[in-house]
């Protein structure tokens, strides 16, 4: 049971990510996006997601849209 509880949040995040990747396209109109709605999501929830994904709050808060440069230094020594 512990494994399920510890990994369920990962599956939930993956599902939300896949949903946006495969069903949402910012270039489409809201009416076109409504036709792409996954059957597991209610119309009201889908409208809310569309509004959220188009919002400036999402653009600012989403980690993929932040300039985070990670500097990794890799060295290999055969000594």
What does this protein look like?
By secondary structure, the protein is mostly helical. Helices cover 58% and strands 0% of the residues. It is built from four helices and no strands. It has helices at 2-23, 30-35, 43-54, 56-61. The longest helix is centred in the first third of the chain and has 22 residues, at 2-23. It is extended. The mean pLDDT is 82.
Percent helix among the residues?
55-70%
Radius of gyration: 18 Å
Mean pLDDT: 82
Q: What's the SSE pattern? A: HHHH
List keywords for this structure.
79 residues, mainly alpha, 4 helices, 0% strand
Outline:
This protein is an all-alpha fold and 79 residues long. The chain is 58% helix and 0% strand.
Secondary structure topology:
Layout: H1 2-23, H2 30-35, H3 43-54, H4 56-61
